[in-house]
Amino acid sequence: MAIPDYSTGEGQVLARLREARELFGRSLHIRTIDTGSCAVCESELRLLLAPHYDLHRLGLFFTPSPRHADILAVTGPAVRAMDVALHKTYEAMPDPKVVLAVGACPLGGVYQEDGFVHGNLDQVLPVDVFVPGCPPSPLALLHGLLVAVGRLSERVGEMSFVAQAGGDR
Amino acid sequence: MNTGTQATSASPGVVGGGETAGFGLRVPATEAWGSDVSEAQVETVVHELSGGGRLADFFGSVEDEQLVLRLVYGFEPGGGYRIVRWPAAAEYPALSEIAPAAFVEECEIYEQFGARPAGGRPLNRLVVPPHAGRDFPRLGRAPAREPGPVHAPHYVSGEAIEYPFGPVRAVAQESLYVGLVTSGEEVIDLYLLQWHKHRGLERRLQGLDPQRALFLVERAEGLSAVGNSWAFCRAVEAIVGIDVADSVDRTRGVALELERLYNHAAAVAALAQSTGLSVGQAQAEIALESFLRLNAATFGHRYLFGVLAVGGATRAPDAERLRTELPRAMGELRRVVKALKSTNSFVDRLEACGIVPPDVARRLGLVGPVARGSGQDLDCRRDHPFGPYLVHPSEVPVRQDGDVLARMEVMVEEAEQAAALVNDLVAAGTGVGVSPASAFEAGSALGWCESPRGESLLWLALDGEGKIRRARLRPGSVRNWRAFDDAARSRNVFTDVPIIEASFWLTVAGFAR
To answer: For residue B77, is the peptide bond before it cis, meaning its omega torsion is within 30 degrees of 0?
Structure first.
């Protein structure tokens, strides 16, 4: 789990981004999933495509298919009713993949664990990056995405790319 | 002055009698009155009230281990709200046969309290997931049998298929399952499953302090945070006797109108997106982002969370920023609306698309821009005025066509009026401050507010310690989703569905809450 380091200098962020662009051929894809949000995090995520933020200029894209996705951006307090859909989406994503928890809900800041929700996304999925905020502004989301890109490039470095017996990695 | 609500005592028989003869419509404007009836009288009473009133809500509450059902009727314009309550048995008269608007609530009461309408009509599943057991947290007893499938039984002959879509849908859309029955292009039938997002908010609110509960009420439907929480605050203030200063109420009004502005701008952006107009979408999003930044500049939060408090408002708007930046944002919105409305390929997609006929809108008890686009002249800022709207009235735009274009025109006109209202309210002076409660006693009250999605109702009961005994949240989304399948079926094709969804501009969060 990594919390965005807001002290990261712009140069470092850009260097990391360049590295990720090389690794992913300027085509890094994000799938979003809502696990019981109040609809505001969705609004901020949509605005990443708006001219003010323009996610595409960074080589990041949203994709409707989890099979094309590298990053899973999760909103909401991990409602139990979404467990199946959440796991299917996560499993459908190819390795390496990272999970980005968007907002206060998946951090456990709004709902306590009970019969309705897990209350904290970490209990159901291995979260790599938490983006705090209720909601996190588009700029905070961009920062969180760049941190996630860093995690992804580390993970690619760890991969052997040689099929192992009995494993699909 | 907080003249909008009147608390009704929790003890029976204080207001009104049990006699149906007492159900004349001479209810003072801007007040909510309650009456007790017996189960035997309910059908007669519903007949009588449905004649001149609009069924606004229907919900249950467990009081001393007894299920009590309440009907809320709105009398427009200026007739106030009327609450009727009766202790219900496991089976109560089927009210949806008299007032069809009650059907969704009948399903909800069955799911949450186990009581069902007489007659054995199949009930739909709303927010309790199908895999939930009997120990799934509910507001009351679990029903004896699980509700049936969500859509009414229907038969499709020929080459139709059911296309399952969801709950994970397009990017950054809320979770929603759409069952599309189609012959390939035409939408023959459509049903929705909305239980994926149920967070049990009404149950969660029980036992909470109102000020703490406000945090969750704002997050029930974040895009209507001000509308819903203002209704909540007004209910609390009516019970515990808080008078909010006029200037502070104007601050709330500014927040509510700013919420309307960004929501309507977002709806225009969604309409442009759903019709595939990227440039229009981008321009509408520029306006949307300007409104959100204006929110942040004037109130410190892009979605206006935390502006309202029980008893007042925590932040006053920055009048200078509003004066300079609101006209600019409005200019951006006007520019894109003008461009879109002179784009034939856009207007063609909107005209005669997703029609909700006026009689359907009335029968289903719709609210907000969806109702106003379908000929329903409703707006609780005018019909049940409260706070700043008593002295700053706004005109209510109404269209008769009931199609997507009519809804968009209503929203655009409302945005103009909202901007004018913001200027009026700021000119009249806005204040900040939280008034303390004057008396703590058990009681119940109805609060209401016109959120961007329409009338938001909040019925609240507090116990002797000032904790919430029952909070009934009824955002506008709860009413308006019920017309979505009708709208989608009306001679539309597959690709019209996202356009219709954008024009409704509802949230699943508000429905499933």
So the answer is: yes
Looking at the predicted structure, is the pLDDT value of residue B20 above 80?
no
* ipTM entry: 0.86
Of B16, B47, B31, nearest to B383 (Cα)? B31
Flag whether pLDDT at A115 surpasses 70: yes
Partners of residue B195 in chain A, C-beta under 8 Å: 81
Instruction: State how far the Cα of B269 lies from the Cα of B288, in Å rounded to an integer.
Output: 8
Q: Tell me the shortest Cα–Cα distance from B71 to chain A, in angstroms.
A: 27
For B464, the token pair is 């002797």
Peptide bond into B317 cis (omega under 30): no
Q: Higher model confidence: residue B157 or residue B77?
A: B77
Asked if B199 lies within 8 A of A116 by C-beta distance, the reply is yes
pLDDT digits (tens, 9 = 90+) for B208-227: 999 899 999 999 999 999 99
CB contact under 8 Å between B509 and A64, yes or no, is no
Interface test with A, best of B199, B301, B451 (most A CBs within 10 A): B199
* Contact partners, residue B477, CB within 8 Å, separation at least 6: B221, B224, B453, B506, B507, B508, B509, B510, B511
Q: What is the mean pLDDT of residues A47-75?
A: 90
pLDDT digits (tens, 9 = 90+) for B490-501: 678 888 889 999
- What is the C-alpha to C-alpha distance for residues A159 and A150, in angstroms, rounded to an integer? 15
Provide the b/e sequence for B121-153 (b: ≥16 CB within 10 Å): eebbbbbbbeebeeebebbbebbeeebeebbee
Residue B477 in contact with residue B506, Cβ under 8 Å?
yes
Q: Which of A31, A37, A40 sits opposite B303 (nearest CB)?
A: A40
Which residue of A46, A111, A137 is in closest CB contact with B172?
A46
Contact flag B172-A62 (C-beta cutoff 8 Å): yes
Residue B142: which residues within 8 A CB-CB, separation 6 or more? B114, B134, B135, B136
Chain B CA closest to residue A66: B168
Domains with residue ranges and CATH for chain A: 22-155 (3.40.50.12280)
Do A79 and B199 count as a contact with CB atoms less than 8 A apart? yes
Helix locations, B64-120, DSSP H: 103-113
All residues of chain A having their beta carbon less than 8 Å from the beta carbon of residue B216 are: 110
